[in-house]
Amino acid sequence: MATDVLVVGGGAAGIAAAVVAARSGCSVTLIDSSPTVGGQYYRGAEPPDSGSGLSYEALRRAFDELVDAARIDRRLHTYAYALERRDGGFLLRTRGDDRHRGDVGEVEASAVVIATGAFDRQLPFPGWTLPGVMSGGGAQALVKGSGVLPGQRIVVAGTGPFLLAVAHALISAGGNVAAVVEANDPLGLARHTRSVLPAAGKSADLARFLAALAKKRVPYLRRHRVRRATGNGRLESVTVSRVGDDWQAIPGTERLLECDALAIGYGFTAQTDLAGQVGARMRIGSDDGLAIEVDARQRTSVDGLLAAGETTGIGGVDLARMEGLIAGVAAVEHCGRRAALSERAIDRGMRDVVKLRGFADALHATFPVRDGWRDDVDDTTLVCRCEEVSAAKVRSAVNDLGARDARSVKLLTRAGMGWCQGRVCAPAVDGLCGFDSAASLIGGSYRPVAVPVPLGAIASDRMSP
Ligand SMILES: Cc1cc2nc3c(=O)[nH]c(=O)nc-3n(C[C@H](O)[C@H](O)[C@H](O)COP(=O)(O)OP(=O)(O)OC[C@H]3O[C@@H](n4cnc5c(N)ncnc54)[C@H](O)[C@@H]3O)c2cc1C
User: Fold this and answer.
1) What is the pTM of this model?
2) Domain tally for the chain?
3) Co-location of 292 and 397 in the same domain
4) 169-192, pLDDT tens digit by residue?
5) CA-proximal residue: ligand 1, atom 39 (nearest)
């Protein structure tokens, strides 16, 4: 094999796995599509934490040293687009970043760690295509990656504690946050004390974010939902309403918030395509999204394939790092070596994973996505932005043409056929049509390519001797 351990994704999970594997004497290749490692959380940021040998700061320092010493082959600007089994190991096909899409390559490996993270989950509403409306992750990336604020007066909305992280990032960068609009009631977290207490550090983060909002007198509107965005050519205001348990708007509670930017998000979706291509078993996560099924050692159902971080279920950056460590250990063991991590550290890591997973499950139970969002999606609202498919067309595919699954809706309307391949619109199509997409994907129909790649590049790659 060209490399012992191949890590796909250089976020918190991938870096941890790569460091453990390289320190244990394995040859390691790590690929990431971005210009730097760090993933979504540490994008463009100085590693913030310090202390234990397992902190991100320490792992990142070790990672950089191992790269300098040529013990980790770090390949940036490189997308993984297809994974297959080959000679008892794996073959991963790659292409260059968007400026060099035709630059294809392959990596053979004995063990593969899938650490490709997640992307924002978006839901449509009238006006969501106006300039100024963006995902929460997009707004955070603007601030963290480029030091740019998305607007002069920003509303942060959707559901989940991530809204607080986004608002905090905006405030810290000097932004004017008009309100944080949370569709659920965070006080529901009090019902999960058994999961919350052991992860006290995570709760402290939330308290810190709330304190920052309070200091700047930013209203935190609980049980409120953005129902539409309006403006002449670009965002000028959003209409919010108080909502009931199912997110149905309560009549008479509408109000207008003036703003020129809206950062909105409803959780995340794990990137599981590569694992699906080699037949790894999936599960439905506690946020109702698809996740790669793993055992306590982060082993998937495919021998030699490990998964860590958001790919195994959305759980935040600390969980990703701990899962990465354990996946690194399992990859080393798969290659027939002993991991350079003490049994005590491994046990502690596995206990942390259980604790942090429990906390993540409590958050998902407190911040679910409820059906009421569908009420505001009128027939003219675009659902698939790539192919410009309206809600009317999607509904008609089901009501008039008899579509019974997302694939049929796609074939009838082109929703999900565009550049993003359904990454943005899939939850919306499923929600509007009443389909359970995660459950149907568990049966196993996966894209043979995980990211867009030119046909010519695939052809030349496959035909070369
Ligand atoms: C936009 C966004 C913002 C977030 N902000 C926060 C936050 O503030 N706080 C928090 O706790 N959590 C946040 N999260 C959740 C976050 O994903 C985790 O906390 C943490 O980053 C997970 O680490 P990870 O290693 O699993 O994945 P990531 O950090 O997402 O790393 C995955 C890496 O894989 C690479 N990759 C993906 N697919 C491919 C491919 N096909 N080929 C090559 N490389 C690939 C990506 O470029 C990325 O660098 C955010 C998530 C998103 C999507």
Assistant:
1) 0.93
2) 3
3) no
4) 999 999 999 999 999 999 888 888
5) 116
